[in-house]
Automatic annotation (TrEMBL):
UniProt superkingdom: Bacteria
Keywords assigned: Cell membrane, Membrane, Transmembrane, Transmembrane helix
Main location: membrane
Name of the protein described by the UniProt record: Sulfate exporter family transporter
Organism: Gelidibacter salicanalis
Length: 312
């Protein structure tokens, strides 16, 4: 950057990004600031921020593993397994059927359905090369998912408090009903430490379903197995939990790692916000948005009803 003059837009962007390093910038506030900036200026580092989101989110997730124990992670994962299988199957089936009924582009239907069923933008990124989606189809699908994630980050904690959900109930609900890992963790972190632990564990177990679902699409779309992306960072998350449970004296540094991971998550949500300008979302169209909202509301309400009727 030496020898080049930094623009006012770049200075503003960098300054606000640095503010995410301070405690007063919670994940929801960072997202709002990012959204506001996206409407005022065009992201001057769009390619760089996209790559940063991918890496920072993985680092944040791995770091959060140092705040969990093996026993609690196994407990959360075991309780969420059947729930995860049922919700993924139902969400995918409903999304594919509803999208076909609305006459939406087939590849957009598939990406929105998989993104809603598994883990938002990560699932879309994994599926898109398999079904040979073009840039416009991908941007429409990811734009919708990120928009709904932004809404979820604010309304889910409010609904949880209104219904007096326990930490465990809220963590499970957010992991099932919110698309992207960043918003799941952001919403759960606002709700409480136990909610964060349950949500992160269940959501990452859910993310592993990218592999079998991708294999299904390879079989039916004629794609290549080589294009399937394996979420290796989940293995590092598991190793972090094991280290936090069994490595002597890890408790000395673990809280600092967890705190740094939450700062990284805050920065991720700021960066995501800066990519959501209303002008770009206008290209989405009513039908894909209607599909995404319909499937999301259905699975959110249904999973909440099941959780309220289940004793944890």
């Amino acid at each position: 950057m030496f020898g080049k003059r930094i623009s006012k837009a770049q200075l503003l962007y960098i300054g606000l990004a640095l503010l995410c390093l301070f405690p007063f910038m919670s994940p929801p506030i960072a997202l709002v600031v990012g959204l506001i900036i996206a409407q005022v200026i065009e992201n001057p580092f769009s390619d760089l921020s996209h790559k940063a989101v991918q890496w920072l989110l993985k680092i944040a997730v791995i770091g959060l593993g140092f705040g969990m124990s093996v026993s609690s992670a196994l407990s959360a994962g075991k309780q969420g397994f059947l729930f995860t299988v049922a919700s993924i199957t139902l969400t995918l089936s409903l999304g594919l059927a509803f999208g076909k009924l609305l006459g939406i582009d087939k590849k957009i239907i598939q990406m929105i359905s998989v993104g809603t069923a598994i883990c938002g933008g990560s699932a879309i990124a994994a599926l898109s090369p398999i079904i040979k989606a073009d840039a416009k189809q991908i941007s429409i699908s990811i734009g919708i998912v990120f928009l709904l994630n932004s809404i979820a980050l604010f309304i889910f904690p409010a609904i949880g408090h209104y219904l007096d959900l326990s930490q465990h109930q809220f963590g499970l609900w957010s992991a099932i009903a919110i698309h992207d890992t960043s918003s799941v963790i952001g919403a759960a972190d606002v709700y409480g430490a136990k909610a964060l632990e349950v949500a992160t564990t269940v959501k990452l177990a859910r993310a592993l379903w990218i592999l079998p679902i991708s294999m299904v699409f390879v079989l039916f779309s004629g794609g290549s197995v080589k294009k399937i992306k394996t979420p290796y960072f989940i293995g590092l998350f598991i190793l972090a939990i094991i280290a936090n449970t069994y490595v002597p004296n890890i408790e000395i540094v673990a809280p600092y790692i967890v705190s740094a991971s939450k700062v990284a998550l805050t920065l991720v949500l700021f960066l995501i916000g800066t990519s959501l300008s209303f002008s770009s979302l206008k290209e989405v169209g009513a039908k894909p948005l209607f599909l995404a909202i319909g499937v999301w509301v259905f699975i959110s309400v249904l999973s909440l009803v099941v959780i309220l009727k289940t004793t944890f």
